[in-house]
Design brief:
Blueprint (H helix, E strand, L loop, with lengths): L7 H12 L2 H7 L3 H4 L1 E4 L2 E7 L4 H13 L2 H10 L20 H7 L2 H22 L13 E5 L6 H9 L9 E5 L4 H8 L7 E6 L6 H17 L5 H5 E5 L2 H7 L6 E3 L16 H28 L6 H15 L4 E6 L7 H13 L17 E3 L11 H6 L6 E6 L7 H20 L3 H10 L4 H7 L11 E6 L4 H22 L10 H15 L9 H11 L3
Parallel strand pairs: 3-4, 3-5, 5-6, 6-7, 8-9, 8-10, 10-11
Antiparallel strand pairs: 1-2, 2-11
The protein binds 6-O-phosphono-beta-D-fructofuranose (F6P).
The site of 6-O-phosphono-beta-D-fructofuranose (F6P) has 14 residues, from loops.
Length: 543
């Protein structure tokens, strides 16, 4: 089967797109704004500022169908082992599905384990909140410290900041990811050992950073508390490696399972979400999962032509493989969504940052874009200059809530106005003629106009999506996260790669062990470049 850029009709469309102003598409198609928008799972996507017309989009949809995307979607939800390099299913979606769906898809034993674990989570949250689960000193818990990194961190981080208005339990939940001791110090300054519940999250329970951080916190807590039951009463682990968690000193009753068919970067819906549930309460955590489940149903049932994840995926591939754009900017115009770009860096780039096909062949096409971003309007005072005046065209996803969560209505209105203005400015740009006319209007001399006009033009023609939600509710967040999960699934399936392993992280882990050994004994024969040998020497000899 041909890749879409090899199909002659699509090729022609790509060449057309490279030459045309996006704005011309609105002139060609009177109802473009309405027809290139759709609502699903409480979200509204306007993709009319993308550089693609109806025929081109339909050709991509036809290509996706010819590539068995329907069956691939069904296969994922049915538990096919699509993570073929690890021989695993990809079933994070089942964690947010109703009980009867769990029982249809999973074995009886597994569905029971999943349902029991969910209930165990609910009980922990209730018991902590109601003061039935107390610390080893008999005190109520006031703080929770979640220790984990990557997928054992990002989802919790996004949820805690996005759903801050829904923090209802009174518990202060902190996250510790980086191995940098400065992070540990920062958290310890905020914590009282007697009233802290620790949730250590690691699917493998071998991640260097998490284990070191957990040990530092454990040493601190045991030193602070004379009680011998601190680990038993104040520590919970979430892991698939019960043996390692027990070796660390945790009792099996306090170890919640993770399953190999839930990828770390897709694990917020599992017991990994416990720290978030401890902050927002069981009802809001259920609402989060409900929002994701509603998006799952849309993804499974909607025709491709009206399927939000599929359209975002195909347009993203049009931009990446057709128009050769290297990056994707994710710009949530929402302070509470400030952690979303970082979360999507892992979800997207750790899933699809690959170059070998499922068949083991070097891919002849590019895959995941470089995902970056930060909250708007901050980005306008950081990288938007490049986006407007460099030669790089960077497709952008704007995300904004119509209703703010603060009392500052005027601030929210200005935030939303900036979001809409940026998508318009990125598309419109400003030509030399427009700049010259503007400067003339302002009374500038011909000489001044000649001097500065060329520095004030903006290239425009940058495509963007604008994703709207009524307000940033638990359901909306769940739908957004599921939307991107499914977009990434579709792109991986059509790029013919395995989106669910991450072998690329292994070499760095291995070499860090060698560097550590060389720091301890420089006579070792580990093959390191002279550069790294010098750097290690500088560290060892530091004053
Ligand atoms: O980033 C690599 C990775 O393996 C992620 O996929 C994972 O979420 C993270 O490290 C943490 O792994 P663990 O949950 O096993 O500690």
């Amino acid at each position: 089967m041909q890749f879409f850029t090899e199909i002659s009709t699509v090729k022609a469309g790509i060449e057309q797109a490279k030459k045309r102003p996006i704005q011309s598409l609105f002139e060609e198609h009177e109802n473009r704004a309405e027809n290139f928008s759709l609502a699903a799972a409480g979200l509204f996507l306007d993709y009319s500022k993308q550089n693609i017309n109806e025929d081109e989009l339909n050709s991509l949809i036809a290509w996706a169908k010819e590539n068995n995307l329907v069956d691939k979607i069904k296969g994922m939800f049915a538990g096919d082992k699509i993570n073929h390099t690890e021989q695993r299913a990809v079933l994070h979606t089942i964690l947010r599905a109703p009980r009867e769906v769990k029982q249809q898809v999973l074995t009886e034993q597994l569905s029971e384990q999943v349902i029991t674990t969910e209930q165990h989570m609910v009980n922990i949250v209730d018991e902590v909140y109601q003061g039935k689960r107390l610390s080893s000193t008999g005190a109520k818990f006031t703080n929770v410290l979640a220790i984990g990194i990557g997928g054992s961190y990002y989802g919790i981080k996004v949820g805690l900041s996005a759903l801050h208005p829904y923090h209802s339990t009174g518990l202060h939940v902190h996250v510790l990811a980086n191995v940098d001791g400065a992070g540990v110090t920062e958290k310890l300054a905020k914590l009282n050992a007697a009233t802290t519940l620790v949730v250590v999250i690691s699917k493998t329970f071998t991640t260097q950073e998490t284990l070191l951080n957990a040990k530092a916190i454990k040493d601190w807590m045991l030193a602070e508390l004379s009680s011998s039951t601190a680990l038993e009463k104040q520590w919970i682990a979430v892991s698939s490696n019960v043996e390692k968690a027990q070796e660390f000193g945790l009792s099996p009753d306090n170890i919640l399972p993770m399953w190999d068919w839930v990828g770390g970067r897709f694990s917020l819906w599992s017991a990994v979400g416990l720290p978030l549930a401890l902050a927002i309460g069981n009802d809001n955590f259920t609402r989060l999962k409900q929002g994701a489940y509603t998006m799952d149903q849309h993804f499974k049932e909607a025709d491709f032509e009206r399927n939000m994840p599929i359209l975002m995926a195909l347009i993203g591939m049009w931009n990446r493989n057709g128009l050769d754009y290297q990056a994707l900017a994710v710009l949530p115009y929402d302070h509470a969504l400030r952690a979303l770009p970082g979360y999507l860096q892992q979800t997207d780039m750790e899933s699809n940052g690959k170059s070998v096909s499922n068949q083991g062949k070097k891919l002849p096409w590019l895959t995941a874009p470089i995902v970056f971003g930060q909250e708007g309007t901050n980005g306008q005072h950081a990288f938007m200059q490049l986006m407007h005046q460099s030669d790089e065209i960077i497709p952008t996803d704007f995300i904004v809530a119509l209703q703010g969560t603060s009392d500052f209505e005027e601030n929210h209105k200005v935030l939303v106005a900036n979001c809409f203005a940026q998508s318009e400015a990125l598309m419109q740009g400003k030509s030399l003629q427009q700049v010259e006319a503007e400067l003339k209007e302002q009374g500038e001399s011909d000489e001044e106009i000649r001097r500065v006009a060329c520095h004030k033009t903006m290239k425009g023609n940058t495509p963007s999506n604008t994703l709207l939600m009524q307000s940033l509710s638990p359901e909306a967040l769940g739908a957004i996260l599921a939307l991107y999960e499914h977009k990434i699934f579709v792109q991986g399936a059509l790029w013919q790669i395995n989106s669910y392993d991450q072998w690329g992280v292994e070499l760095g882990k291995h070499l860090s062990e060698q560097v550590l050994a060389l720091m301890a004994d420089s006579s070792l024969s580990h093959q390191m470049s002279p550069s790294s040998v010098n750097l290690i020497r500088a560290f060892v000899q530091k004053k």
